[in-house]
Amino acid sequence: MSTDRPSARGIIRRVTGEVTGRVVAAVDPDVVLAEVDVEALVERIDPEALLERIDPDRLLDRIDPNRLLDRVDPNRLLDRVDVDRLLDHVDADRLLDQVDPDRLLDRVDVDRFLDRVDPNRLLARVDVDALLAGVDLEALVRRSGVPEIVAESTNALGLRTLDLARRQLVSLDVLIDQVTDRLLRRDFSTEPAGPARLVQAGERRGDVQPGRRRSVTGHYAGPVTRLASIAADAAIVVSSFTVGVAGIDFLARVFLGLQADRAGFSPLAVAALVAWAFVYTFGGLAVAGRTVGKALVGNRVVTRDGRTISVRRAFLRTLAFPLSAVLGLGFLLALFHREHGTLHDLVAGTTVVYDWGERPVELSGPLTAYLDRQS
Fold first, then answer.
1. Which domain holds residue 361?
2. Is 169 a member of any domain?
3. DSSP summary character for residue 309
4. Within a domain: residue 246?
5. pLDDT in tens, 212-262
6. Is residue 237, in this structure, part of any structural domain at all?
7. What is the distance between the alpha carbons of residues 68 and 64, in angstroms, rounded to a whole number?
8. What secondary structure does DSSP assign to 204-234, as a single string?
9. How far apart are CA 360 and CA 366, in angstroms?
């Protein structure tokens, strides 16, 4: 009986094979599929065994892949696929030829991508010259913030240099104050530091500020810085007036054919220079409380209690300035006055203080240490 079973099975297979072949040839599969519950059929079929008997490439030739993708959830498919293994079977360059990279970048989180990429390895494989040839370098530099960094660095360097020069002038002021106070037998430590609104209540010039450089922001400006600001303003007034006269002379000769008298300074020229000096000084004080020269040195004109000066006070101070200039006696008063006031300061009710804008006015470290020892 056991020897008959294999032969019986072979006969059955031949019979069913013949029948199946004839049935498949005679039956329209589409009609069968229309009548069959395909989902139930799929549940009873082993897909792996089916794939082993099907030529996938031949199947793909007969299927519309785009229509298939419309019905498949690609993300769910990717969750089940070994992507690295898939990429091993894909021609990446051929894939890139068929993809719109710009459209892909529009949908990709580039920052997230860069977080996972080794930039150095990427740059090692990139032709940098070819890459830069297609890059708008000006736009790249603007987005990197390099111009702002350079501007801030240059500005900071210029301000540090200016503050260094200012600090030397302030140091000379302090040393001269020390000498003057000793000559006049004044107690340096009890002298008022500055206007009440600009310094702390009760602050004196000799107050110690332990652990840091001594700050003199808002303190009365000394004679050296005041003299330096006057010299700077004088140079600016004369040079700007000279340039202006030369420009007017040039325009008069070119357009009007007039020739200026070069024999010397006429009374009219002197009057024009004085008028320009008045406008320059009054305009600077009325608008900003300081002229350009005072701004360079780091001084500002305020009322005696530290408020911003009014236009009236600016006018009076400018008008009284020549009184101080006569023989320089009005300026010498700044050496001995407790607030370093000049004659035109007393007339206008003003005083001059140290003011470097947002930056503190600090003495040098060695001078601070010296003053602390003297206190």
1. 161-374
2. yes
3. P
4. yes
5. 778 899 999 999 999 999 999 999 999 999 999 888 878 878 787 776 665
6. yes
7. 6
8. BTT---TTSPPB-TTSBP-HHHHHHHHHHHH
9. 17
